[in-house]
Specification:
Blueprint lengths: L5 E7 L2 E9 L11 E2 L4 E2 L20 E6 L2 E5 L1 H5 L8 E9 L8 E9 L5 H12 L3 E9 L2 E10 L2 E7 L20 H13 L11 H14 L21 H15 L18 H31 L1
Parallel strand pairs: 1-7
Antiparallel strand pairs: 1-2, 2-8, 3-4, 5-6, 7-9, 8-11, 9-10, 10-11
C-alpha cells in the first residue's frame, strides 16, 4: 500500500467515514537533470533574494501576497491551516449527480479513499454500495494543498475513488475553437460510425508508452557507447496532403477489419477512387481532340476515294 497523502473523513450527511487518501496513479516518466554540458556537473536553482542578492535557506522562505506595488502581505502556513473551513479535515459530500453530466475535461488527479481502520469499514460499505447500484456520482468539497477543491466520488473495483475537479469557472468555453459548419454527407457519417464500431475494444491494458520505451533505448545505447536506434518511419500521411474523405474512411474501415481478421458480413467497405486532379482533367480533352482529328482524316480519305471512282 502506498504511503497515505492525507487522513481525514468523508462527511456523508450525519455519517462520518474515517479515510486515508492514497494516490491512484504512478509516474513512470523519465526525468532528466539539468547539467553543464562542458563537464556534466549538475545545474541547480538558487533561491536568491532580489533585495540583498543573497541565497535564502528554505526555512527562511514563506508566502506573501502583493496587494500593491512595493507592498506585500505575509501569510503563514499556520494562518492557512486555521482558516474556518469545514473541509479542512473532511471530504464533505454536497450533492449527487448523474455520472454522464460530468464532462471529463473537468477531472484532474485521481486518488483512492481507503477505509482508515476497522471502525471505518461499516460506514464505508453503505456509501460504496449506494454508488455501485446507482448511475450517480457524489460531488464533494475538500481542502488540498492549501486550497479548497471540488471532488468527484465514484467506484472502481470495490474502492471509492476521489477525482479532483476543476471549478466551473476554471473550464474555458470551446465555442471559439470549434470548426465552422461544413457540409458532410450522411454516408460519410455512417462510415465514421462503422469505423468507430470496428475499433471498439473492451480492455485498455494493452496500451503502453512507446515514447518512454524509445527514450529508455536511447539512454541505454548512450550509456553502453552503442549507436542510437534508427528512427522509425511510421508511414503516416503528411499533414499537408489533401485526401478524399470518403476514400480515407472506407480504407480505414477495411484496415480495421483486416487487423481483427474479420472477413465481414457481406458489407465490405469499397474504397472510392480519388477525383481526378487538374492535371488529369487537362489530359482528357487532349485525347478526345486527337481522336476527333483521326476520325475527320478518315472521313476525308473516304470522300476522295468516292470522288475518284
Amino acid at each position: 500500500m502506498p504511503r497515505p497523502l492525507w487522513a481525514g473523513a468523508i462527511s456523508f450527511g450525519l455519517v462520518t467515514i474515517p479515510v486515508k487518501i492514497v494516490s491512484a496513479t504512478e509516474d513512470h516518466n523519465v526525468h532528466f537533470h539539468r547539467v553543464h554540458l562542458a563537464d556534466m556537473g549538475r545545474v541547480r536553482t538558487r533561491k536568491v533574494c532580489e533585495l540583498d542578492d543573497q541565497v535564502v535557506p528554505q526555512d527562511e522562505i514563506g508566502k506573501g501576497y502583493e496587494i500593491a506595488k512595493d507592498q506585500t502581505v505575509p501569510v503563514t502556513d499556520e494562518e492557512l491551516q486555521q482558516m474556518p473551513l469545514p473541509t479542512a479535515k473532511a471530504i464533505e459530500i454536497a450533492a449527487f449527480v448523474d455520472a454522464d453530466t460530468i464532462h471529463p475535461v473537468r477531472i484532474s488527479d485521481s486518488y483512492y479513499l481507503a477505509a482508515d481502520g476497522q471502525v471505518a469499514a461499516k460506514p464505508y460499505t453503505p456509501l460504496r454500495k449506494a454508488l455501485e447500484r446507482s448511475s450517480k456520482v457524489a460531488v464533494a468539497k475538500f481542502q488540498w494543498h492549501g486550497r479548497e477543491r471540488l471532488g468527484l466520488l465514484r467506484i472502481r473495483e470495490g474502492a471509492i475513488v476521489l477525482h479532483s475537479m476543476k471549478w466551473p469557472d476554471e473550464v474555458r468555453s470551446p465555442d471559439e475553437l470549434a470548426p465552422r459548419e461544413v457540409e458532410v454527407g450522411e454516408e460519410e457519417i455512417e462510415q465514421a460510425l462503422q469505423l468507430a464500431e470496428r475499433m471498439t475494444i473492451e480492455d485498455l491494458s494493452g496500451f503502453h508508452d512507446e515514447y518512454r520505451e524509445a527514450l529508455e533505448d536511447i539512454i541505454t545505447a548512450k550509456a553502453d557507447g552503442k549507436p542510437l536506434p534508427a528512427p522509425v518511419d511510421d508511414g503516416k500521411q503528411d499533414k499537408g496532403e489533401v485526401v478524399d474523405l470518403m476514400a480515407a474512411l472506407n480504407a480505414s474501415v477495411k484496415a480495421a477489419k483486416e487487423s481483427r481478421g474479420d472477413d465481414g458480413d457481406g458489407d465490405d467497405a469499397t474504397v472510392h477512387e480519388m477525383r481526378p486532379t487538374k492535371k488529369t482533367a487537362r489530359k482528357t480533352p487532349a485525347k478526345r481532340t486527337a481522336a476527333s482529328k483521326k476520325s475527320a482524316a478518315s472521313k476525308k480519305t473516304a470522300a476522295k476515294k468516292r470522288s475518284a471512282s
